[in-house]
Amino acid sequence: MSVRRIPTYIAPPMKLALGLVQIALASLLLFYGCDGNGVGPSDEDLPILSSPQGSFDDRDKRFYVAVTVTLPAGVTSLDSSNIWTEMFLVDTTGVDSPLTQINLVDDGSGGDILPQDGVYARKFSSPLAAGSSGTVYFDFYALVDGDTSMATDTLHLVNLRPVILSVSGSDTLIRPPEGFITLDTLRAVAADPDGLDDIRRVGFTVLKPDSTLANQGQPIYLADNGDRSLWGDLIAGDGTYSIIIRLESTNDPGRYVYRFTAEDYSGAVSDTVYHPVVVQ
Ligand SMILES: [Ca+2]
Ligand SMILES: [Ca+2]
Hints:
Layout: H1 19-32, E1 38-39, E2 48-57, E3 62-70, E4 83-91, E5 96-103, E6 119-125, E7 134-144, E8 147-157, E9 163-168, E10 172-173, E11 181-191, E12 199-207, E13 220-221, H2 228-231, E14 240-248, E15 254-264, E16 273-279
Parallel strand pairs: 10-16
Antiparallel strand pairs: 1-8, 2-3, 3-6, 4-5, 4-7, 7-8, 9-11, 11-14, 12-13, 12-15, 15-16
Residues 224, 233-236, 238, 240 line the site of one calcium ion.
C-alpha cells in the first residue's frame, strides 16, 4: 500500500535566481491551489499548462483528457511525444495503481476538438475495471528542451448499486407424488449502471412456511452462463440470471418467500425483490 506518487518536478539550475519568487508563489498556492489548476513554472522558457481536465463520457465509456498549453517564445508547437498525461487510480483503501499513459495532440484528431488552438487533447477507452471506485488522477506533462512542466486534474469515481429489475417463476407449485420431482425455472433480470460486467452475483434466500430459512439462511446463487439444461439460462452474459429448482413430495406445503438480491464487485447490494410461492 502506498500513498499517491508525487511527480518529480525538474528545476533547472538557471532558476535558482528565481528561488525567492518561487517561495512566495508556493505560499500563495497553499491558499489558492485547488483541483484542476495548472501549476505553471515561473520561467518564460517553459510551457505553461492550464485548465487540465479529465472527464468520463458515460455514453461511449471513454475518457477525454485535455490541457491548454502556452508555449515559450520561439516554440510554435509540441510534438505529441512531448506532451502526455499519466493516469492513476487511488482506490478507496488508498492503494495507488498506474493505469495508462496517453500522448496528446492538437491537430483535431483523436478526440482533440480544434486543431492548433493550444488545447492538447485525446479521447481513449477506459482502462478501468467495471465499477471501479476511488479517485482518478491525470498528471499532465509537457517537455520542452529537456525541461518539464506539470499540471494535475482529479476525477472522483462513484460506484452505483446494482438493481433487480424483475423476477419470474411459478407462483404456485403442486407437490409431485412420492418418487417424482417437479422442476421450475426461476429467472431474475439484473442491471448495474456501471455495466453488466460489474455484477458479481445474483442470489436468493428462502423463507419457509414455518418462518425458518432454507439452506441455513445461505443464499442460493443463480447463473448467467447460457446453460439451458442445468440452469435454465437461455443466453450467457445478458443480465438474466436463472436457476432450476426442484420440488419433492417431502417439501412442506405452504407459503414460501424468495428474497432476491444482486451484488456488484465493490460489494454494493441491490434492494431486495420478493417473490412468493405457494406450495400445495
Ligand atoms: Ca456497480
Ligand atoms: Ca442469461
